[in-house]
Amino acid sequence: MLDLALAIAHHLLIFALFAILIAEWVEVRPDMTAAAARRVARIDIGYGMLAALILAVGFSRAVYAAKGWNYYAHNAFFWAKLGVFAAVGLLSVPPTLAFIRWRRAALAPEAADVARVQRFIHAELLLFALLPGFAAAMARGYGEF
């Protein structure tokens, strides 16, 4: 039962993180107002909290759930999934810093700054798209070494 509960929680958290990333993608646009900048900064707080929860639940799954750590530790797709998740996390740092700056300035962000943040969000989305494939391959035993 623990395995099922952790799997459900992990999947729901991943879907929620993707939803927040899509919300940021929709909100960050050249015609942003100061109010929109504050809104996206609040949304981004949820992004960070969900990412931390995903790691906690994911590692709990790997250690305490049915397959156990040995299964995951020897799977290339598990490590690829973690690497991609880490890359998405690193790509989220510049937008987060921009959101904080925008919120503190209480002004509409400049178009060049918005364009820069949009590029990071697009890169996050592109990498995020790899995660389901890696997860599916890993769950089916591909990538064992």
Write the layout of secondary structure elements.
Elements (H helix, E strand, L loop, with lengths): L1 H26 L6 H31 L3 H6 L2 H16 L1 H13 L5 H18 L1 H10 L6
Helix pairs in contact: 1-2, 1-6, 2-5, 4-6, 4-7
Quick recap of the structure?
This protein is mainly alpha-helical and 145 residues long. It has one domain.
Helix and strand run: HHHHHHH
Helix- and strand-based class?
Answer: mainly alpha
How many angstroms does the end-to-end distance come to? 28 Å
Helix content range: over 70%
Low-confidence stretches: none
- The tally of strands reads 0
Q: How many structural units, i.e. domains?
A: 1
What are the salient characteristics of this protein?
145 residues, mainly alpha, 7 helices, 83% helix, 0% strand, elongated
Structure characterization notes:
- The protein is built from seven helices and no strands.
- The chain has one domain (2-139).
- The chain is mainly α.
- The model has no long low-confidence stretch (mean pLDDT 96).
